[in-house]
Amino acid sequence: MGSRRPVRVSSYSLLVSLILLLFADTDARTMAPLVRVRVGVILSSRASSGMERAAIELAFEDYYAAHPRSTTRVELHFRDSTGDVLGAASAAVDLMANAQVQALIGPQTSAEAEFVAHLGNRAHVPVLSYSATSPSLSPLHSPFFVRTAAADSFQASPVAAVIVAFGWRVAAVVHEDSPYGVGILAPLADALGGAAAITERAALPSNAADDALDAALWRLMAMPTRVFVVHATYRLAARLFRRAREAGMMSEGYAWLATDGVGGFLDRLRAEDVDAMQGVVTLRPHIEFTKGARDMSARFRARFRRDNLDDQLCDPTVLRAYDTAWVIAAAAESAFQSPPRNRMARPTQEPTATKTGLDRISVSARGAAFLRAVLHTTFDGMAGRFKLVEGQLPVAAYEVVNIIGTGARTVGFWTPLSGISPELHYSRGGDGKAKTQVELKHIIWPGGTVSTPRDWTAAAGQQRNGRVLRVAVPVKHGFKQFVTVAEGGSSTASANVTGYCIDLFDEVMRNLAYPVSYRYVPFHSSTYSYDKLVELVWEKKADMVVGDVTITAGRMEHVDFTMPFTESGWSMLVAVHKETSASSMWIFLRPLTASLWIASLVFFCFTGFVVWAIEHRINPEFRGTPFQQFGLTFYFAFSTVVFSHKERLESNLSRLVVTIWVFVVLILTSSYTASLTSMLTVEQLQPTVTDVRDLQSHGHYIGYQEGSFIEPLLKKMGFHERRMKKYSSEEQYADALSKGSANGGVAAVFDEIPYLKLFLSRYCDGYAMVGPVYKTDGFGFVFPRGSPMVADVSREILILAEKEKTGQIDKAWFGEPGGACRTSSGGVVPPSNLGFHSFGGLFLITGVVSSLMLLLYFATFVYREIDELRQAPATGSRLRAWFRHYNKKECNYPTFTTWTDTATNFATDALGPTTTTSFSVRMASVLNTAGSSSPEEVLTTPASEITTEATFEQRVEGAAAHSVV
Predict the structure, then answer these.
(1) What pLDDT was estimated at residue 128?
(2) For 102-116, what is each residue's pLDDT tens digit?
(3) Which of the residues 400, 434, 557, 574 has the least number of beta carbons within 10 Å of its own beta carbon?
(4) How far apart are CA 396 and CA 593, in angstroms?
(5) 108-138 pLDDT tens trace
(6) Bridge partners, 227 (sequence order)
């Protein structure tokens, strides 16, 4: 058989094959059909839409130049909205029904975009807007609406931060009367919180004439607020600032803060518009111009100059339009890899006689996929990082710029993390707060001044319109030292109003940093209710209230108060009668309260028991029959009152207990003696009533000042309205209290501390302030809610108090503190007896020491006698056996050892040495028997009835007789 020859393939053939395959694949790709994606663009010919159109077209050209192998191509279909809602809606219907677009870019305004977004939801066509920033148009409510810019609610925080940074507490908002303009009001109020308040709002129509602008500016000029926040399109804002300059509101003393509706379009303003905005502080999104952004800007300017014979710079809106077009191209590449069979799935409908444009709009088959692709597309755009969050694009940082000269200068930044800071990357501590106080860079305000304008001034508005602030004052029938309105004085005669509150308010107004023109207007119905007086400010019938008006929580719901300028609280005023304490036969019990008497008795007994327990086994003076020991215990304890105890103590533990107790007794007896002496020698003033519960239980009549806020509080305390009487002067107080509740008067009068002190300064004798002091906030001046004068006036009140100027005004109207009653016994009646609380510390010390010594003694006893205690039977009589063992005397103690030696020596001298030994034995036996723990054992001993209570001599004689026998 012949051999088969192997086939060899040369490397050259393989290389040729690979090249052919590569070219074949390239040709296939080249010959693959491109997917055409129709995208509609709605712009307004009345706006500067040429710039946005140029940016959109340039974006698509740049995208496909950067992605030459893209399988999709976007076809743009432009429509003109003519600048109104109907035009935008008509353009959207035409694009969806006739052009069958897969997505829409625009419209430019929030009002136009709102209706178009509803059409997009119906047709499942994504609507992307780079300029509709009203918060009312939310992707959460319109799923197919995508905002490729930040909502106006997002810039409310930086606006509020700038206001707070300058220490402004009030501001007025001038906004465009459109969904775009009103969208910032609620977020700005929330962002300000309690740091500042919006006092005025001026809504301007989008096409407002100069007369309407002038009317709004003159109305704002008449208001005291001097800080204005402008939120409008740059065209309307430019006209507003030109009219403001003509009205003199772009001068020193005014502050203007504009949102990014102005700051983001500074490059589009004319030179005369910029000149009218000198000193304005505005915001704009911070954009870092990278190399790509600079290249794009150069190509954009060249393209726009070619198409429009004009030169324009790239502003943030142009860059956002460019990024919006880029994301459309990128999302189309992801969502349209192959041409759909049916781009628009037309629903089958019954034939009708007539059809509208809306009936011809069908649901897009690729709309949902296109929307998902848009939402998930991220890239580094010309305006920064493009990443949608909940259907809209947040701003990483805002620039704070100051319009000065021919342009704007950056003076600071705002970021969500750092807040206001002079630099973009400002160093902050770990707690998110600046290490040093954050301040913006140097700012030149309107009028060329560098001093920060005040947020509020009364003088400017008064100079413009001659307005004088109306200050309501109460008309009082009594206590006229606070406010006095002269009889017959007209309501416009300020000179007829005097008093402590008036002098203090006038002094505060003179010390303010700005002049304030005002006049006092008497309010004659204030005697019936001060609440109606406060309501005058709430109802704008008065600009403020000056008088003895108490600060309460209910009144602060509608108005603001300054800090109080008088003492706070209210209490009870009663009549007092003189009483000679010596006339009572039980006067000796009155120095101490019942609780102190009981506590003293308990501690006397406890101390005696502790001493007996410690001394009983070792001291013969604390032994004997049970009755004798019981009497000795009480006698020893109570004898310490006069320090007459003569029993000798053997234990150091009992000595320490007695030492502490004697110190306590010394303090008690000294205090008792002093109090009793005072009662016997000093005439006491006793109040007729000392407690509110006494008034209620006995059904007494009570009084209060008419118009006071105390009336409802008394009803809450349980007083019946029939038992309550109104009074208006000090004389009526004195007369009612003198008569008493049973004779047509009252038993007590409830009023505020300043009134009661004024009363007691005139009526020194016979009256006193008793009972608890119920807290209130004192008197304050009343201002409208959010008034910036509140802080200024409060500050001046505090300064006057520190300079003792308030004290001088007090002396001028109320005299010296105490006045004629300085040496009188009137005023608050002090308690006449001593209570347990005053000596609680002493009782605590002696109780703790006595308890510790007792525990220490018993612990030592158990430790030494543990062997004998264990021998006790385990039956229920063990405790009795222990007690018997404890009742035995401790013969080894030195006291008893000394007594035994003494008895032996005495017997040796009396009987001779022959009988000494037997006598000592018998003596020890008898003494041990006499001191046994059981009385029965003593009775059974063969001795002559020797008991433990016998003296030492008697015991020796008994022992000698027993020995002779």
Answers:
(1) 95
(2) 999 989 888 899 999
(3) 557
(4) 73
(5) 888 899 999 999 999 999 999 998 988 888 8
(6) 255
Percent of the chain as helix, strand, coil, to the nearest 5: 50, 15, 35
Alpha helices in 124-233 (DSSP H): 156-165, 179-182, 185-192, 210-221
| Of 111, 155, 133, 149, the residue nearest 322 (C-alpha) | 149
Cis peptide before 107 (omega within 30 of 0): yes
How large is the average pLDDT for residues 38-50? 82
Burial of residue 251 (CB within 10 Å: 0-12, 13-18, 19+) is middle
The helix (H) or strand (E) run that includes residue 783 is: strand 782-784
Measured at the CA of 96, the angle between CA 93 and CA 101, to 5 degrees, comes to 145
pLDDT score recorded for residue 113: 92
* pLDDT of 52 over the 50 cut: yes
The pairing of strands 227-231 and 255-258 is parallel
Q: How far apart are CA 732 and CA 915, in angstroms?
A: 102
Cα–Cα distance for residue pair 326/377, rounded to 1 Å: 10
Angle between helices 594-615 and 652-681 (to 10 degrees): 160
Neighbours of 626 (CB within 10 A): 9
> Among 283, 268, 289, which residue's Cα sits nearest to residue 395?
283
952-964 vs 894-911: helix axis angle to the nearest 10?
Answer: 50
Structure tokens that stand for 118 in this block: 């509803």
What is the C-alpha separation between 382 and 285, in angstroms, rounded? 13
Cα–Cα distance, 65 to 9 (Å, whole number): 42
CB 156 within 8 A of CB 259: no
Cα–Cα distance for residue pair 667/841, rounded to 1 Å: 12
Distance CA 630, CA 803 (A): 69
Tell me the pLDDT of the chain averaged across its residues.
Answer: 79
Residue with tokens 């120095």: 591
| Residue 741 per-residue DSSP state | G
Give the E-state strand segments of 374-500 in sequence order: 379-381, 384-386, 398-404, 407-415, 419-421, 469-474, 484-485, 497-498
- Long-range pairs of 811-814 with CB within 8 A, sequence gap ≥ 24: 812/500, 812/503, 813/481, 813/499, 813/500, 813/503, 814/481, 814/500, 814/757, 814/758, 814/761
Lowest mean per-residue pLDDT among 427-441, 489-503, 559-573: 427-441
* CA dihedral of 100, 106, 111, 112, whole degrees rounded to 10: -40
Would you say 267 and 289 are in contact if contact means Cβ atoms under 8 Å apart?
A: no
Give the mean model confidence (pLDDT) for residues 6-24: 47
Place of tokens 């063969």: 942
Read off the pLDDT of residues 59-96 as tens digits, 9 standing for 90 and up. 999 999 999 989 999 999 999 988 888 999 999 999 99
Which amino acid appears at position 278 of this protein? Q
Counting every residue written for the chain, the total comes to 965
Beta carbons of 789 and 456 less than 8 angstroms apart: yes
